[in-house]
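step=encode ok
step=design start
structure_in=
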């Protein structure tokens, strides 16, 4: 069924609100993937905070004009899907890399991370990075460590003072 002009305008505005406005977007060639696999991929991406959309190339090219994703306009050829998020790109990249290992027909074509174009090989490198939550946990631990050491040092001074006072008292009690 052919799309009407109104349908096309609606798709362009949906692409502009979603993938063109996203700070992280990865292009995928989904040729050879069946419907249950795509459904599984959508569910996994949704769980990682990302979205997945199969795009009409000509309309997507209109939507991304003037946006960071425009650097990849030549990649919008053939069957293209876009995974995008404004949150954690590492989680999205890990999900896609794991899925690509299970379904080798999925091909990463590149993407945009923080407004910078990245190649497919760089997406694999991004997937090896620790997630945002892991980095925040490490940061909290690193910030907490000096404070904990300082508190232990203060407690040791008080404890040692009390021990010395106890020894002095015991010595005086033994003399008297």
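sequence_out=
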């Amino acid at each position: 069924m052919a799309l009407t002009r109104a349908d096309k305008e609606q798709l362009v505005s949906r692409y502009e609100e979603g993938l063109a406005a996203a700070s992280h977007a990865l292009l995928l060639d989904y040729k050879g993937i069946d419907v249950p696999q795509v459904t599984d991929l959508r569910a996994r991406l949704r769980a990682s905070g990302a979205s997945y959309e199969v795009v009409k190339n000509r309309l997507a090219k209109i939507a991304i004009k003037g946006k960071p994703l425009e650097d990849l306009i030549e990649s919008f050829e053939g069957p293209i899907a876009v995974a995008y998020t404004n949150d954690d790109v590492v989680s999205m990249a890990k999900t896609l890399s794991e899925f690509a290992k299970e379904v080798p027909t999925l091909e990463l074509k590149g993407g945009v991370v923080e407004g910078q174009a990245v190649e497919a090989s760089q997406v694999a490198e991004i997937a090896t990075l620790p997630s945002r939550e892991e980095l925040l946990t490490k940061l909290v631990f690193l910030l907490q460590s000096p404070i904990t050491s300082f508190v232990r040092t203060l407690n040791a001074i008080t404890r040692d003072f009390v021990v010395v006072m106890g020894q002095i008292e015991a010595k005086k009690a033994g003399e008297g």
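step=design ok
step=annotate ok -> The longest strand covers residues 107-113.
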